[in-house]
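hiii so um. not sure if this is the right channel but i have a protein structure encoded as tokens and i wanna go backwards to a sequence. like what aa goes where. can anyone help
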């Protein structure tokens, strides 16, 4: 039978080629995005150690924006893929219309908050006057430009929901490449550009996201996608928003928890040495280079699992999960090897301060010990989201980052010092991983039993 919708390939094509086809664009796009995060921090590290520490303190605030975008986007992608799997195309289109309106609302609201309260916000995460000055200068621009940050991320998930991962890849690459190019001009004042320091990095970020947003808006609204965003056909339905956030809210809260975790971790390590805050920032940017390919894999993985869950095809779900776990394991194990073999070289990319390097080498080798299991854990969390069950992911994330990680960090630091507290990260990951595997296995087996029962009716 000839396929009438491009989303139907998620229920018919061979799993491995399909997973590669859908994932590789997102993997490339997110890897380039991670490269930007690393390069941006390298530039800032050349300004000063204090600027690098200020950027690290700004990171959990930026993650609040990421939380809103990720939560909304994950819920959107999951819902659209399931609706298309049930052949409810108009419902999927109406979902996209609701999400676009919410995106504008979020952008304008956060922009107003940034305009009036950015100094108060940064004063909450830092105490050193110089760090507050540098960080507030950076975060105010980021918050004012939040609509430019939100739109390309959420619009990309609308397209991913129908199985289109190529355009989101181009969007990420476009934004990251523009950012990398203009960063040094605005930070260091090259040519006729003013020397803006950390503010220059913020302006470069907002401008590059604005350009990538224009690109994906043109693709999204021109009308030849399966999901049609035509507001003359818009019908407000609060149930759609509820459906988006049934999966998206737990994902959003998980990102909020990550923000709170980084804030707490910065406070704990900062009580030992301000340079340890800079090391934390370096670690989170370097780890994104390891984990972002896995998140890119998830952008192709989620619509396949969601579509086949909607179409009651457990065999295709099982095969997709199996290969997703294996590929994710390969990615994060490779990162583990690199972090263990070259920690000094990785830290030196950002700044050559001897004390920073000494703290950083110990941190990277210990923080990365659980990398091999983190890839499969990310796939497990995404599987919960793909089948419309975001709550387990939220509970697991809360247990890892808040109940276990921060208390273990504090206790190890208090009794054994700075070098010991880095072990808290792998300890928390290992403790929670077993719970996640058991819970996911039980959930999937019950879902597959229900599918088998439906097929016999």
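sure thing!! here u go:
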């Amino acid at each position: 039978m000839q396929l009438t919708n491009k989303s139907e390939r998620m229920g018919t094509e061979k799993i491995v080629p399909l997973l590669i086809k859908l994932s590789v664009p997102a993997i490339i796009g997110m890897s380039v995005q991670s490269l930007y995060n690393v390069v941006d921090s390298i530039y800032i590290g050349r300004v000063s150690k204090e600027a690098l520490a200020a950027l690290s303190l700004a990171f959990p605030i930026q993650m609040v924006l990421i939380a809103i975008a990720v939560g909304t986007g994950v819920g959107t992608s999951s819902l659209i893929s399931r609706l298309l799997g049930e052949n409810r195309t108009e419902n999927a289109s109406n979902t996209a219309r609701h999400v676009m309106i919410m995106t504008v609302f979020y952008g304008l609201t956060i922009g107003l908050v940034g305009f009036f309260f950015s100094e108060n916000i940064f004063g909450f995460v830092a105490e050193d006057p110089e760090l507050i000055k540098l960080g507030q200068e950076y975060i105010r621009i980021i918050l004012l430009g939040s609509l430019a940050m939100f739109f390309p991320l959420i619009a990309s998930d609308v397209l991913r929901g129908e199985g289109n991962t190529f355009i989101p890849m181009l969007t990420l690459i476009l934004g990251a490449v523009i950012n990398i190019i203009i960063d040094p001009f605005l930070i260091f004042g090259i040519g006729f550009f003013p020397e803006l320091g950390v503010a220059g990095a913020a302006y470069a970020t907002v401008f590059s996201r604005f350009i990538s947003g224009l690109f994906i808006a043109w693709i999204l609204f021109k009308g030849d996608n399966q999901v049609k965003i035509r507001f003359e056909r818009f019908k407000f339905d609060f149930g759609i928003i509820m459906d988006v956030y049934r999966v998206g809210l737990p994902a959003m809260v998980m990102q909020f928890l990550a923000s709170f975790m980084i804030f707490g971790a910065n406070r704990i390590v900062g009580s030992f040495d301000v340079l340890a805050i800079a090391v934390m920032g370096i670690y989170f940017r370097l780890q994104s280079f390891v984990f972002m390919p896995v998140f890119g894999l998830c952008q192709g993985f989620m619509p396949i699992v969601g579509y086949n869950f909607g179409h009651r095809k457990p065999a295709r779900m099982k095969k997709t999960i199996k290969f997703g776990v294996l590929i994710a394991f390969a990615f994060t194990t490779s990162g583990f090897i690199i972090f263990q073999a070259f920690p000094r070289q990785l830290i030196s990319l950002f700044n050559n301060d001897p004390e920073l390097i000494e703290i950083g080498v110990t941190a990277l080798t210990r923080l990365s010990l659980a990398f091999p299991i983190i890839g499969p854990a990310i796939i497990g969390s995404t599987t919960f989201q793909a089948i419309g069950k975001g709550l387990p992911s939220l509970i697991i994330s809360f247990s890892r980052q808040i109940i276990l990680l921060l208390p273990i960090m504090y206790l190890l630091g208090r009794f054994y010092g700075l070098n010991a507290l880095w072990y808290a990260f792998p300890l928390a990951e290992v403790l929670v991983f077993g719970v996640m595997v058991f819970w996911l296995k039980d959930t999937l087996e019950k879902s597959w039993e229900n599918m088998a029962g439906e097929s016999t009716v």
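oh and The radius of gyration is 22 Å.
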